[in-house]
Description:
- The structure holds 4 protein chains of 4 kinds.
- By secondary structure, chain A is mainly α.
- Chain A has a domain at 30-57.
- Helix content of chain A is 88%, strand content 0%.
- The N and C termini of chain A lie far apart (53 Å).
- Residues 1-11 of chain A have low confidence and may be disordered.
- The two termini of chain B are 17 Å apart.
- Chain B is mainly alpha-helical.
- The relative contact order of chain B is 0.15.
- By secondary structure, chain D is α+β, with helices and mostly antiparallel strands.
- Chain D has 2 domains: 29-113, CATH 2.40.50; 126-325, no CATH class.
- In chain D, strands 2-4-5-7-6 form a 5-stranded mixed β-barrel. Chain D has a two-stranded parallel ribbon with strand order 1-8.
- Chain D has helices at residues 4-22, 29-37, 132-159, 162-193, 202-222, 227-244, 246-255, 280-325, and strands spanning 25-26, 44-50, 56-57, 63-69, 74-79, 91-99, 104-113, 119-120.
- Chains B and D meet through helix 7, helix 8 and helix 9 of B and helix 5, helix 6 and helix 7 of D.
Amino acid sequence: MTLPLPKQLARESRTMYEFLEQNSLFVVLTIVLIIWAGLFFYLLRIDKRVAKLEDKS
Amino acid sequence: MALAVKPASALFQKDVRSELRTRYTLNALLMFVVISISVVLFSVAGETLQPEITIGMLWIVMFFSAMSGMSRTFVAEEEKGTTMTLQLLASPSSIYAGKLLFNLLLIVCLNAVIVVLFLLTMEKFAISQPGLFWLVILLGGFGIASATTIIAAIIAKARTKGTLFPVLSFPILLPLIMAGISATKTAVMGTTWEAAIPDLQLLVSYIVVVITTSFLLFDYVWKD
Amino acid sequence: MTGITVKDITQRFNRRTVLKDVNFTAEQGKVFGITGKNGSGKSTLVKIISGIISPTKGSIAFTRNGEDIPSEKRHEHIGLVGPYLTLYEEFSALENLRFFHSIRGLKYDEQQSNELLARLDLPTDRSDPIAAYSSGMMQRMRFAFALLHDPAFLFLDEPTSNLDTDGKNKVHGIVRELSAERCIIIATNDYEDFVLCDDYYSVDGSVPALLEQPAN
Amino acid sequence: MIKWWKIVLFVWIGVFSALGIMTPIAGGLSDLAIFAEVGDTRLIPVAMKIADHDLTEQEDGTFLVAGEDKYGDDAMFVLPEKPAGFSEAEGYLLDARYDKENHRVVAAEILGDYPGWSFPYIPGLGERAKIIFFHVPMSWMTVIAFLVSMWFGIKYLRKKNLIDDAKSAYAAGLGLLFCILATVTGSVWAQFNWGTFWNWDPRETSIFVLLLIYGAYFTLRSAIEVDEKRARLSAVYSILAFVTVPFFIFIMPRILPGLHPGSADDVNAGPVVSSGGMDAGMRVILYSMLLGCIVLFGWLMSIQMRVFRITQKQEADDIAAAEAIS
């Protein structure tokens, strides 16, 4: 069995990091994405509660 | 809101006498302090610490001893089943005042023991402004007691009493602890005590604000 | 006039309604009874009246000699006997009484306390903690706790539950003696207590075993 | 049926997010001069307006043109190439640095046409300054949700109506969500701007304390089984937390030195939103986003409350049915 090459992983994340470092606008976009994910997660929770209500009635 | 001095002092005397008779809290607390200080000493293992770190350790020990000591305030009454008896006997504000008095006394003694043990065991721990240092320890203790008294009343009504106490207390106490640590640093390393004035103001206003709010809110916590 | 007016008391507990719109008046000179099956809310009602629980809705007015007593002063005028009241077991009887006296802001008089203990058939010469007392003695200690400050309003919740016939008679004697000048409320399911009452309120509509009256 | 205001809300947040993200950032001569003064040769975006359409070709193949920056300061600009449609163009957005010796703005690249609407260039932030439209409303919402939660807590203590407690709890739940989002977005941004995810800057400490308080609030709620008791004690706790938190949110960050704008050592003085501290356009977008977030908060609250009311009605029916049987 071979483990994933740490070097490769490191390089990959490194380029991603560098990309974000050089293109600041994408940092802002990442942040907007995080906020959307948070709101989506909250929506899912409400959805679950409504589904529970539907099951009952 | 009627606060009578007499009921409060009666409750305070009762608590002191009860504590001296049973010694549940006192013995356990003393051991707690000894144990936590020895853990600090073991981890230091004879090295000389920087004063900042020693101050941090001091406040950690003070915080956690207070956590284990104050939590019993109302839980003890709840366990004995005497809560309703007290509810019948006096107004909520005098109960709060009595318990607050007892906690103030307890924490002042506790902090004095902790600080003396620290001074004895940490040889290189020199204080440049002893007067300010003791004032900060006293105010810090008062602050901890004032905030934790009402939280102790809250947790007495909840299920997981002991573990809940530090969880609820820490966020409320954090402004106090930060100001306290900063003032202690001034007392230990500073050259003038004037540098600690903003911190002292913060400590005093914190105590005033928290005690006033507690008096206003205690009714709702105390009565079912 | 000395008395209590209970108005529209409603108590909800975990969204269940325990008491709904309770209304009654209890006056000095008459013994008022609160009845109902076990778990129907008798004790809750007594606790609400004595101020231990604040009700979800409604109000209670206390009047002494025609004057209203504000809620923060009521604890000075209320005496309560109930199974849920515990005394400080690490203290002796007299120490307990002294604490109750001083927390109410009253002057402690050892002579008076001793007389009260003697009247309730409790030992006056014991200085050991009351933890060692039997349940009957403890019940009598509760009476000492309730009667100590000579309250105008006396609430008795299951007052005879732990007592033998002698004790019961004693309690009944005390109730009769005190009822002339005080407002007494008894919450009970016991027929012998119930016959003392001049008027009653039933929490759930039931009345203690009227059919099982003793032979006499 | 979808109510009109929900569509307005969606469009509102969408439009202002887009405006916030897509508006270019452009500096002027004064921004260039700051870097030139210390010998920093980095390129920054500069908006340039052509003064007269006279183009001079130089020896190295670049073109010299007279113009003014967005603030109206005149300068000579060096363009790397002759752009197509130069004679009609109003101006350009350049990636440029300042040539101190020749007093010229030297562009490395033409990024686009002259932007009619742009944000000012903030040294050290660049495009990252746009975080303000998303991160700051989140942290404000954290505090607003906390206030709302406490408000309904007080209302419960006065009226003893469990609906108020539910409102208080849901407001706190949303507050926790906003708090987590503010913390995460802030720390991601801090990694790229300040080099670490977490610095214990006073404002970071204060949001962390809010997180702890929200955590403690829900721990307390989960530890009490009786509804009325839970409502009462959690209301008391949130009031208690509220009177101590201002020590953090409003006093600590301003008396201690920190990295955030508005800290004690910030020479620009004043918190982020103080007048004069921020570009008018940015302020409009920030406030609009904040307003959008408040409405969104109210909407999510109302959805939760509708679900709660139905649940409560069902439970009441269940209890009534059980009592009817027995």
